[in-house]
Amino acid sequence: EVVMCNEIFEPLVEGQKLPVDEDGKITGMARCVYPTGQVYEGDFVRNKMEGRGRVTLPDGETYEGEFHQGQRHGTGRTTWPNGDTHEGEYAHGKRHGPGIYRWADGRVGAVVFDQDKFKGTWVRRTAAGTFQKFLVGKMVKEVSETEAKKIIQEHRLDSPW
Predict the structure, then answer these.
(1) Are 76 and 93 spatial neighbours (Cβ–Cβ below 8 Å)?
(2) Which of 52, 50, 5 has the alpha carbon at shortest distance from 27?
(3) Contacts 24+ apart (CB under 8 A), 90-94
(4) Whose CB among 37, 103, 125, 160 lies 3.0–4.6 Å from 58's, allowing a Cys bridge?
(5) Are 65 and 71 in contact (CB under 8 A)?
């Protein structure tokens, strides 16, 4: 016999009851284990991730931040198993807007994403301390630190250094 299981909800604090609304839906803070192995701890509205929380995927990727309608939406931080991180804006489950991207090897960039793809002009400091200007996802040229800071200001990005 095979039994298919949907998500499993648990209270965040042992001994507490699950926050269930009048329709039997989880509305409040809880922990959920999904059939895919994904684990979410945080705010729910009617069984959907909504508000603030933390999701961990089976491969070790984590996202901590804001959710809307079950997706990453608002500000948050993703950390990948290789050590890279992105801190910034998300929309409908994708990186979208300005942010700070840190590569595990020490590079750091003031970046802009559009639906999970690099967009526009942005800058990156290399692990060696030099600065690079990018257009979309391609390096255009090396620039001085002064020029890099000017690009950050012109594009209203947060400075990562």
Answers:
(1) no
(2) 50
(3) 90/65, 90/66, 91/115
(4) 37
(5) no
Cα-flanking dihedrals φ and ψ of residue 154, to 5°? -60, -35
Distance CA 70, CA 49 (A): 4
Q: What one-letter code names the amino acid at 75?
A: T
Structural contact between residues 86 and 62, judged by C-beta atoms closer than 8 angstroms: no
Q: How far apart are CA 147 and CA 140, in angstroms?
A: 13
- Give the pLDDT means over successive 10-residue stretches in the chain (161 positions): 75 91 95 95 97 98 98 98 97 95 93 92 93 92 95 82 78
Structure tokens at 44: 């729910």
Looking up tokens 């042992």, which residue turns up?
14
Cβ–Cβ under 8 Å, residues 89 and 102: no
DSSP labels, 89-110: EEETTEEEEEEEEE-TTS-EEE
Q: Which of 31, 92, 34 has the alpha carbon at shortest distance from 66?
A: 92
Tokens standing for residue 159: 């400075």
Q: What is the pTM of this model?
A: 0.88
Q: Which of 79, 80, 117, 110 is nearest to 95 (CA)?
A: 117
